[in-house]
Amino acid sequence: MRTTESGGRHRRRFNRIVPAAAAVLALLGGGFFAVTSYAGETGTDTPTGEVVKPPPGATTATGTEGPSASPRIIGGSNSAASWMVQLVYDDPEYGSYFVCGGTLVAPNKVLTAAHCLHDEFGNRQDWGRYGRVAVGTSVSVTQEHSGTFVDVTRSWVRDTYDPDTFTNDIALLTLAKPVAQTTLELARPSDSALYAAGTKATAYGWGLTSSDEDTAEIAAQLQKVTLPLNSDAACAENLDPFFTPGGSMICAGQLGTGDDSTGKTTCPGDSGGPLVVNNKVVGVVSWGISMGKQVCNVAGTYEAFTKVSSYESKVRPRIDDTDLSRNGKADLFVRAASGGKGYVKESTGNGFAARKSMTGSWSAYNLVLQTDLNRDGYQDFIIRRRSDGAVFWRHRTASSATYKDTKIASDWSTRKFTVAPGDVTGDRFPDLLSVTSGGTLYVYPGNGDGTFGARITAGKGYQVYNSLRGHGDFTGDGRTDLIARGSGGKVYLLKGTGKASALFEKGLQVRTWDGYNAFAAPGDVTGDGKADFVARTPGGTLYLYPGTGKASGEIFATRIKIGTGYQQYNIFG
Fold first, then answer.
1. Which of 105, 182, 245, 270 could crosslink 207 through cysteines, CB 3.0-4.6 Å?
2. Are 475 and 494 spatial neighbours (Cβ–Cβ below 8 Å)?
3. Which pTM was predicted?
4. How far apart are CA 543 and CA 566, in angstroms?
5. Phi, psi of 433 (to 5 degrees)
């Protein structure tokens, strides 16, 4: 293989050192791309044109063994894509610098590569403290432009990410506020057709536009290039021994030509950016091969990407969450039977912390459901007024931290169930479900802004259940599911199909629970990417059932006792 012949080396796309290739070191006289004047949300500007001292190790990559950072698009064209963002790290010692690209997959969520959030030694960086993203511009942050900075509040990296092999090279950033730009959807496990060999995919990025490290320059304008997807067998043969077949990686592009006038490929600096098919992100720019002074477009080689559909079930709960405290784990809303006060019980990972009071009035309602209809990262609620059955969307206003009630239905007092499980139709926007007294299931397709499309009849016979709850994916297939209970305490998994006309498969019995009188499905309480469930006994003992991701009788792990005294609450979100 070329990585072991003629001095070639396995090349990582774009690390904290941007990139760790001699071409870029010579370009700026340092180890990364400094950020130029840039009006940001923080109210401060970065030094104009300043190239500060490179971080330790920045000048040592060339000629070393093993992976080295590398960014670029060769043979591409200028582009504008409102869902593209640039990751910038404000190092307290070395200043601000561009790190990677990323994709908005929700108004406050950015998909990127795990290696983008680590330094050159493989150490995780503090993106919640020092990270920002540039949105609303196709111009590189190394140029003067009119984009906007938004702070990063937290980051998630796939826990089995390996910086040596680049397996599980995927991460998600949560922004401090939602942005108005459009978003892209993640490819799901059911989207296998999008990965067929020969499919034309488009990669985006601000990486190097030359493969020669002596002449390489970062793109001033966002670039895109169309690349054919290749089969796993071809990827494994071409990129042996670095390519990992079996689902975590894909490769794309024509064979490298060694000549930039004929090559079409990604390059150093494009790391973290998307590979797009039919408006879905199928891949994340991850790594490639460099040889000598040629940092990309090495003759006879392909480029490697993280396969997004393999990680969709891990990423999805962190996009469509019920996270009141915004710590990455689903929290639980409870309403006191006496006085009607609302409280949040923040997740600790294997339970819930002491309750905290929620602002606003909750006593006039007989239904409260946790959701995030506009995907702004702030918890919303669906509430139903007891007096007339009117249903409202209680949501945080864009201008302040206060909540506003928007009416979405007039009289649902006779509705047997109302559920806010997330996206059930497969269009990435959270939906609303309701069951009539006669057992007809309706879906109200969400528009992503708190409004809904015309209702669709999605099933019948739901009158046989006495409980219907759900939030997220219980089976790990990327589709939203429900948990229902019928006579005799029989509990059923209603597996999601993603099809609005027939949302769920026939119920599969997975448990018998006749010893509980209240349930909640807050989402991913444990933070492992699997939807969990909560149940309460008549005596007031609350249990957490951690999800396993299995569509069988083993759908939940051994229950965890949360505590007693929960009989004082008569509504669980």
1. 270
2. no
3. 0.76
4. 10
5. -115, 150
Residue 318: which region, alpha, beta or left (left: phi > 0; alpha: psi -120 to 50)? alpha
272: left (phi over 0), alpha (psi -120 to 50) or beta: left
> Any residues with CB less than 8 A from the CB of 282 and at least 6 apart, and which?
187, 191, 194, 195, 201, 229, 250, 275, 276, 305, 307, 308, 309
Q: Cα–Cα distance between 268 and 466 in angstroms, integer?
A: 56
Predicted pLDDT of residue 354: 95
- 264, 226 contact by CB (below 8 A): yes
Tens-digit pLDDT profile for residues 227-266 = 999 999 999 999 988 998 888 999 999 999 999 889 999 9
Structure tokens at 23: 């071409």
Q: Which of 115, 118, 395, 471 is labelled catalytic?
A: 115
Q: Give the span between the Cα atoms of 314 and 319, in whole angstroms.
A: 10
Cα-Cα-Cα-Cα dihedral sign, residues 102, 105, 107, 113: negative
Out of 90, 119, 169, 320, the active site residue is 169
Contact between 452 and 432 under an 8 Å Cβ cutoff? The reply is yes
Q: Which long-range contacts (CB under 8 A, 24 or more apart) does 58-61 make?
A: 58/17, 58/20, 58/25, 58/30, 58/31, 58/32, 58/120, 59/25, 59/31, 60/20, 61/17, 61/19, 61/20, 61/21, 61/22, 61/120
Residue 24 is encoded by which pair of tokens?
């870029």
Among the residue ranges 100-104, 173-177, 333-337, the one predicted with the least confidence is 173-177
**Three-class secondary structure assignment of 269-335:** CCCCCEEEECCEEEEEEEEEEEECCECCCCCCCCEEEEEHHHCHHHHHHHHCCCCCCCCCCCCEEEE
Q: Is 212 a residue of the active site? A: no
Which residue among 271, 286, 347, 434 is the active-site one? Answer: 271
Helix residue ranges per DSSP H, 394-529: none
Residue with tokens 């109302």: 418
Told to judge if 115 belongs to the known catalytic residues of this protein, a careful annotator would answer yes
> How far is residue 233 from each of residues 11, 87, 239, 249, 424, measured CA to CA in Å?
21, 33, 10, 12, 34
Q: State the average pLDDT over residues 437-465.
A: 95
Query: Which residue has 């709850």 as its token pair?
Result: 469
How many angstroms separate the CA atoms of 372 and 395, rounded? 8
pLDDT in tens, 182-240: 999 999 888 999 999 999 999 999 998 888 888 877 888 999 999 999 999 999 999 98
Burial 318-341 (b: 16+ CB within 10 A, else e): bbbbbbbebebbbbbbbbbeeeeb
**pLDDT digit string (tens) for 103-122?**
999 888 999 999 999 988 88
Q: Specify whether 190 is catalytic.
A: no
The pair of structure tokens assigned to 293 is 């002074």
Give just the sign of the alpha carbon dihedral 119, 124, 129, 131. Answer: positive
